[in-house]
Amino acid sequence: MNNKRLLLIDDDKELAELLTAFLGMHQYSVDCCFDGQSGLKQALSQSYDIILLDVMMPKLNGFEVLKALGDQHKTPVLMLTAKGDDNDRVLGLELGADDYLAKPFHHQELLARIKAILRRIAITQDLQSHPNAEQTLSINGVKLNHATHQATCHSQAVELTSTEYQVLTILMQHQGEIVSKAQLSEQVLGRKLAPFDRSIDVHVSNIRRKLLPFSDTDKIKTIRGAGYIFLSGDLS
């Protein structure tokens, strides 16, 4: 088994040393940067399977790093946020992070989050490597090409993170049906929906925001207290 490459951007050198040793025992190779500026440079110059990104750092903070990476940077990002700071979590997701984990965290919980993100990537790669599988999903002007992991809305390219792409895929596969936040959390994030967890809400909001410039109608309807419906075009 080839080691997965992780980039840890965090100014806590003691934590970095502990995580490097722990993740190394689980076949993960970890490169560390201790400020946002060097971390951004490393992320743009090297190929990684996942980036672990702290919020509070010198030179550039985690949000500034996310902004600089932009939508077209495809490496999934797991934000490391302060415990109880919901604003940081939401902002990180809005800026393109795939998931977040509050400090202090248990090492096994971090490992579970990493594995969940990498499973999503593996599912996408599996679709891309099977030419006989259904490679496109096209509903109500939105088209997903699983072979290239590209999304379009009325033929215009839409840049989605890997998590957003998976959320939209599930919603489209269940067009016209309510998909609960709990179902999306388990299938996409790989964990049960926790009370007050807004991750799925933010990912859906991001998808809406990215589709809206190319469409005069909302493609996703919120059913309060139940979940979301991807509209097939004949629903109001």
UniProtKB/TrEMBL annotation:
<dbReference type="GO" id="GO:0006355">
    <property type="term" value="P:regulation of DNA-templated transcription"/>
</dbReference>
<keyword id="KW-0902">Two-component regulatory system</keyword>
<keyword id="KW-0963">Cytoplasm</keyword>
<keyword id="KW-0597">Phosphoprotein</keyword>
<feature type="domain" description="OmpR/PhoB-type">
    <location>
        <begin position="134"/>
        <end position="232"/>
    </location>
</feature>
<dbReference type="InterPro" id="IPR016032">
    <property type="entry name" value="Sig_transdc_resp-reg_C-effctor"/>
</dbReference>
<dbReference type="GO" id="GO:0000156">
    <property type="term" value="F:phosphorelay response regulator activity"/>
</dbReference>
<protein>
    <submittedName>
        <fullName>Response regulator transcription factor</fullName>
    </submittedName>
</protein>
<keyword id="KW-0238">DNA-binding</keyword>
<dbReference type="GO" id="GO:0000976">
    <property type="term" value="F:transcription cis-regulatory region binding"/>
</dbReference>
<dbReference type="InterPro" id="IPR011006">
    <property type="entry name" value="CheY-like_superfamily"/>
</dbReference>
<dbReference type="InterPro" id="IPR058124">
    <property type="entry name" value="CpxR-like_REC"/>
</dbReference>
<dbReference type="InterPro" id="IPR036388">
    <property type="entry name" value="WH-like_DNA-bd_sf"/>
</dbReference>
<dbReference type="Pfam" id="PF00486">
    <property type="entry name" value="Trans_reg_C"/>
</dbReference>
<feature type="domain" description="Response regulatory">
    <location>
        <begin position="5"/>
        <end position="118"/>
    </location>
</feature>
<feature type="DNA-binding region" description="OmpR/PhoB-type">
    <location>
        <begin position="134"/>
        <end position="232"/>
    </location>
</feature>
<dbReference type="GO" id="GO:0032993">
    <property type="term" value="C:protein-DNA complex"/>
</dbReference>
<keyword id="KW-0805">Transcription regulation</keyword>
<dbReference type="InterPro" id="IPR001789">
    <property type="entry name" value="Sig_transdc_resp-reg_receiver"/>
</dbReference>
<dbReference type="InterPro" id="IPR039420">
    <property type="entry name" value="WalR-like"/>
</dbReference>
<dbReference type="Pfam" id="PF00072">
    <property type="entry name" value="Response_reg"/>
</dbReference>
<dbReference type="InterPro" id="IPR001867">
    <property type="entry name" value="OmpR/PhoB-type_DNA-bd"/>
</dbReference>
<feature type="modified residue" description="4-aspartylphosphate">
    <location>
        <position position="54"/>
    </location>
</feature>
<keyword id="KW-0804">Transcription</keyword>
<dbReference type="GO" id="GO:0005829">
    <property type="term" value="C:cytosol"/>
</dbReference>
